[in-house]
Amino acid sequence: MPRITLVTGQWKQLVLVVLIGANLRPFLTAPGPILTDIVTDTGMGYPSLAMLTLLPMLLMGIGAFVAPGIQAVVGTRRGILAALAVLTAGSLLRSVAFGSAWLVLTAALCGAGVAFIQAAFPGIIKEKFPKTIPIVTGLYSCMIMGGGALGARLTPVLVNSGYSWRLALASMAVPAVFALCAAYWAASDTKAVKPDSSLTRRLLRRPRTWALMAAFGLVNAGYSSMVAWLAPYYQAAGLSNSQSGNLVAVMAIAQAASALVLPTLARRNVDRRPWLWTTLVLQAAGFLGLAVVPLAFPALWVGICGAGLGGSFALAIVTALDHLDRPEQAGALVALMQGGGFLIAATGPFAAALLGNWSGSFASAWVMHLACVTITFFIYARFRPERYGEVFRPLLA
């Protein structure tokens, strides 16, 4: 893999990439392995528990649309500092979350902070690392998913060591404080302009924009359901909270590795579809194993599903960027894909909870996501690179 050569001052920005990336998922993955303790204490049902994932994902989707405008008004540095402060506060407030409504509110606070950061950070990477964008973006993606592994692994360890589930969740504020300090030390303003609303409208008139949203959303619905329900699914099958937390960590580590490796392997192929289909095959095998023989090889099913999800996330962004040559147009398309996609993905945990209540098992949810993977396969079939210019040319020439 190519080596990152840093000029003076860039190493501070790289530290920022690592620390901020590592804080964007722990608040999502941390509750899953200890949901049994949360339910025992609060009496929350599946629909309420689904809100812990659904609300942040909704906010991430909305953030892709509104955060660039906020960034243009308040500035990148102040926006990042405020977002990290909100994320830190959301985690800290979980230490006094004595009711389900309060716990859901903390999830919304964390999601709001992450929503701004996720929208702003690709532009920061592009400006600060213009010659190594793919490498630094891969590192950023790895840290996002590696942070998810940290959240899933740490909370059951703390609970089993005698800490309350509230303090275990609140511990996610510690790395957020480090990121906040790093941002105060290293963050600087980047060029930020208000989004071109006419460009957004023109993109939304094209069916390909909606196809990209749908594919991104259907795949990430699987991720959001895995984050919310994988640990409870295996705890119901007899595994401990620590063992189920390990499985969520395996998923996140496999995601991180795949998000870094698959785009690198695919970089010489103009047609990304074979690699996109590969990620769907991995997901399909994983969801099928989870639904049919979950206890036979749990780490295998979780690992290959995670690899498919992580690779698909990264390759979807690359594929969207491939469609347009002008950076501002390609960036707007990616923002729309992620915004609409996260709104779709937010429905995953809630739909899984409803199916689980109806059928008595989350196995039905994995079958649902297997169907989503199948639909996505046919959407990807339309992404022929020789037609990229054609599908947008009438409006963006």
Care to describe what's here?
The chain has 397 residues and is mostly helical. The chain has helices at residues 10-21, 26-29, 35-42, 46-74, 76-92, 100-128, 133-160, 165-170, 173-186, 197-204, 207-236, 241-266, 273-292, 298-322, 327-345, 347-359, 363-380, 388-396. The radius of gyration is 20 Å and the shape is globular. The model has no long low-confidence stretch (mean pLDDT 87).
Described by strand count, sense and barrel closure, the largest sheet is:
none
N- and C-termini, Cα separation: 36 Å
**From the alpha-carbon coordinates, what is the Rg to the nearest angstrom?**
20 Å
Q: Count of helices?
A: 18
- Mean of residue pLDDT values: 87
The helicity comes to over 70%
Order of helices and strands: HHHHHHHHHHHHHHHHHH
Beta-strand proportion: under 5%
Total DSSP E strands: 0
Pick out the low-confidence regions.
none
Name a few traits of the molecule.
mainly alpha, 79% helix, 397 residues, globular
Task: Give a short overview.
The chain is mainly α and 397 residues long. The chain contains 18 helices and no strands.
Layout of helices and strands:
Layout (H helix, E strand, L loop, with lengths): L9 H12 L4 H4 L5 H8 L3 H29 L1 H17 L7 H29 L4 H28 L4 H6 L2 H14 L10 H8 L2 H30 L4 H26 L6 H20 L5 H25 L4 H19 L1 H13 L3 H18 L7 H9 L1
Helix pairs in contact: 1-6, 1-7, 1-9, 4-5, 4-6, 4-11, 4-15, 4-16, 5-6, 5-9, 7-12, 10-15, 11-12, 11-14, 11-15, 11-16, 11-17, 12-14, 13-14, 13-17, 14-15, 16-17
